[in-house]
Amino acid sequence: MPRRNLQHAENSRRTLYRLASKRRCRRIELVLSSESDSGDSSFDCSSSDSVFSDSDLDEENPYKATETYCTEETEHFGGESPEQGRDDISVASAFTDKSVDTNSKESSYEVEFKAPPPKEEDNRPFSVVEVRLPVISQLKILWQDRKSLKLKNNFLHTKCRYCLEKYQIQSSLEKFSGQSIFQDKRYEDVLASLKSVELTAKTTEIRYQKILRELTEDYEDKLVIFNEKKKKLLSEQSEVSECLEGRFSLRKINFLMRRQERRDKSLTEVRIKFLKFKNSLETISNVFDRLNDCEGQTVNLYANLLVTKNNLGERFDDRDDDVGRIRKQIFTITPILSHVRETSHGLSLEIDTCLVTLKEVTVFNYQSKLRVVENRRQKDLLRKCFSKMYQTAFLLVNPRLLQYILNSVEENEIVREQVIDMKLLLDP
Prior knowledge:
Layout (H helix, E strand, L loop, with lengths): L1 H36 L26 H14 L4 H6 L9 H8 L23 H4 L1 H34 L19 H58 L6 H143 L6 H28 L2
Helix pairs in contact: 1-2, 6-7, 6-8, 7-8, 8-9
């Protein structure tokens, strides 16, 4: 059903475009015939007899001819459910007011020609604007193709968004459920449709690049011809004005000059339109590149998910083997652990006894350290007393002083022996 609706909308768009192109070709033929008959026809873009009429050039709504039919198509497709609308996106919805508003920002002009009244025959050569009329028609065809590609691109983007919303990445516990992305075949169908759209986009892009290259070459050749003719015309105009001075009035000369300026303006407008179409083609190519990148990313993601699925299955099998091996190790380790528990209980009792002895040793060490500190303090006091006595004594042969020194030496030896004994006691 959605493919039938898409085909119906595409056929209706083609018929409308064919009718519009036929109408445009008729107007171009009328202009060519009238230009071949009349020699003084002007190409003023601002006057009411201009080639580019303001009534036919509608910048705000250039797709006014197809708007009524496409609104009927959107009403026909509007009865579907929102879930079905995501899958069955129709191309006709792009011709609504919203698409017109978005496309009105870009430079899209449709050139239509009015047929001036027939005059006397004139066998003069075609002007540059007349030569460029087929180029303008080709540019319009390019614009219509670009519009269809834009519609297809919007359809592809909506389809990708729907697929990403539906097949979002799940957690590690839900990956292997029955509703996962690996067991759903619709994802592969969407990938196949994406590949087909990519192939069509590549072919159309190559065709448009070739057409644009041919148009640029044609444009450059005709621009050279135009510049040469312009220079020749200016030289002939100066010669004619010198030869026929007095025959043509100043008003007639000004009129001819204004007509030439209007033709130059129309040529610049055509050149601007060509550049705008070229920029639009570049934007389309950029969009195609982004589309190709997105498709490559989705394909890589799908392949990575398949690889991760296989790897996780292998890991689960390895873990089952590891669990069986660990169970066997547990059965063998339990008796060893019971023996270790018994030995650790016996060692804990020995450790308690060692702790008691260690406490006693620490108490003895503390007391010995206090004794050592006390002996050092007494030694310092004796040293001070000895220094004072040495300072006060001025006679070394004093018998009392000698006796005191001998006594102090004996006391020092006694103290030294006590310190040595304490060190022996402290050493293990």
